[in-house]
Amino acid sequence: MTQTGRYGVVVAGGGSAGLAAALASARSGVRTLLLERHGSLGGMATAALVHSICGLYRLREAPGAVLAHRGFPGEFAARLTAAGGATGPVRIGRVDVLLTQPTLFAALADQLTAAEPNLTVRFHTEVTGVSRDSCGRLERIATFCRGRQESFEAASWVDATGDATLAALAGAPCEIAPTLQRPALIFALGGVETEVLHGSGRMQLGRAIAAAVRSGELAPGLLGVHVRPTARCGELMVTIDLDDPPGGPPFDPLSPASLSRMERYGRELAVALTTFLTRERDGFAAAYLAAFPARVGIRESRRIVGETRIETGDLLRGATFDDAVALSTWPIELREASTGPRLRFPEGDRPCEIPLRALKARGAPNLWAAGRCLSSSHEAQAALRVIGTCLATGEMAGLAAAMQARGEHLSASTLCAARELVAGLFSSFSPSSKP
After folding, report:
1. Which residues of 340-367 are buried (b: 16+ CB within 10 A; e: fewer)?
2. Strand arrangement of the beta sheet that strand 52-53 belongs to
3. How far apart are the C-alpha atoms of 301 and 382, rounded to whole Å?
4. Structure confidence by residue, pLDDT tens digits, 185-195
5. Beta carbons of 241 and 182 less than 8 angstroms apart
6. d(Cα 357, Cα 412) in Å, to the nearest integer?
7. Global pTM?
8. In this predicted model, what pLDDT tens digit does every residue of 218-249 receive, in sequence order?
9. How many Å separate Cα 6 from the centre of its chain?
């Protein structure tokens, strides 16, 4: 095994949370390493073709989106919009979202990370082992890429893997809910006459698919299909919330056999739906499968057990904490069945504060977590997992790890002050907001 080097902070996972964590750490002056198993950054926003940023704006009945997060989330949204990779904010029911283009999301992530002299990015790299000292502090990780093993040391670590991989390999306490949010396969259709979906067109399409499911022409797993036209001519993004494949065991996001079944099953449903649409629906005669995702979109997996746990009641009442470092501004979006979401909005649309202690792994003094694997209940995670919140928690976990690596006093107030200082360096792309 090659001993490659020592860093101040190592971030595992290059999704939206890991991207924000690595940039925050590097921008604060700490030598930082970002590890990603795919060939691009963005995670679910790129590899899984998730094409909107939710949780970026406050919940409110009145029209007019209000940015919820100071710092990097607003900067990234502004930069992506300026690059032509985002449209909005768009009002959908009671929420505001930023519609995004996955390819341009990945391109912007490359540009931002390449511009940071303190940041090294390693693609196609998996963490395979973790070493800890007698006090439980992480000291070293082993990584693997195509037969080559390397090891890295760091003073502080951020687990942004989505599966709490670092925490699990280190032996830190983790949990996984007995019932999980359903995964989704998102794919792109080209050659669609998208004007047929205007007005009541999408509702009519949904009814036609439901009728085909009832008649047995389409599989039951297609009952909850959702379609959304993009800004590109003739392009449609299709989301299938996946039930368990027929005859298979319940979905397990940590099982290679289960993941393999789900990937094949999702693509099988996508092909069947495309065939049906091209044969049966006006406006789809010339439609074709334009893109499959690199992987199925996982909404929920293993999580850390933190120094505190964000509970369902905290989300519903808009709880406050004395060590708050970010906000949750998305409803609890339960997708425990493949037929669509159940939404639970907080009282008065109040945001729930996210405490620093929920980002801190219990029993591992120098391990932080962000994104969908921070410490929370199953239902609370259904609100916290969205990309806007992942960007916010990633930024704060990265800053916390950087301050810890430098041996600085760490508290919610010093962390927020550090965020303001770093954000000030990029003020032209940092819309102001007041949590």
Report:
1. ebeeebbeeebbbbbbbbbbbbbebebb
2. 52-53, 95-100, 86-92
3. 11
4. 999 999 999 99
5. yes
6. 9
7. 0.95
8. 999 999 899 999 988 999 999 999 999 988 78
9. 28
